[in-house]
Amino acid sequence: GETFELVDKEQKQFASSGAQSLSKLFFYEPFGLLSWIGELSDHFGYRLLVILFVSQHTIKGFVMSALGPAKQYLFASYMVEGPRMQIFTGVVALPWAMKPVIGLMSDAFPILGYNKGPYVVCFAVLGTLGCTIVGAVQQSYLTVELVVACMFLISLEISSCDLLTEAKYSEKIQACPQWGPSLVTYVWFGMNVGGLFAGMIIGPMLELSGPKMVYLMCVVPLCSILLPSWMNYFEETRLTSQEAAAMRQKLFAQKEACFLCILMLLCTVSLSVLGIFFESVRLNCIAAVVVAFVILGSFSVTFTPIIAK
Fold it and tell me: Coiled-coil segments, which residues (predicted)?
């Protein structure tokens, strides 16, 4: 009896160790994913990996890929014609052209002594509010112009979080350049996985529940960056008023760059207002062409030809 118990015990131990070996073989050894992330955490800190997971993988990867198709279906539910839909789509994408202004503002005017975290919190609140309105408020109470304004706020959150987290991990890469390619791989790998996951579920969700449910689903991912930003996962050191003033003086000394940032902001706001409140396709087309010539001309005059290109 004892012999059979020993044999049975050894078989169970062997099976358990075999299962662990297979698990290790199929999940850990081919990619070394966990050990690789652990090494990244050792070199860059877990806080940076968390903030990149939320901003790049979840918000930029998953949310952007999910809201892209839903946006087209939502415009179609308002019976928006093709040319006007293209104008609205361009307006929604305009916050990506505001990234230089956002970067200048966050560096020149820190909030409570911090350059990144408070700005991310503010933009995340606006984006989450816009997404909640689009998803939760009945369509009969929302005009298409208000929907576009809410989508603009969502894009503003995504673009600003993308900019400020990219600035942070660029600083980290400069401090540890030999692990820079691995960190960039972590960012883009997770971003593509998030986009792939969104692509897998977005079709059935649109068919079964409609585009507004997609926006409701994205509320939680959009607000997920609030907590790590509030807890200073950007690992910022609080600036004194003297340090902030010195930074402003240094930035404002670059008059050409500041001028171009302000010009891009004015052009972005102008195109947004025209696109939302004026239905004329010709007017919006003329405005876009004029803005393009103004921006290109300003860059050509302000910078040398090599930099302007």
Answer: none
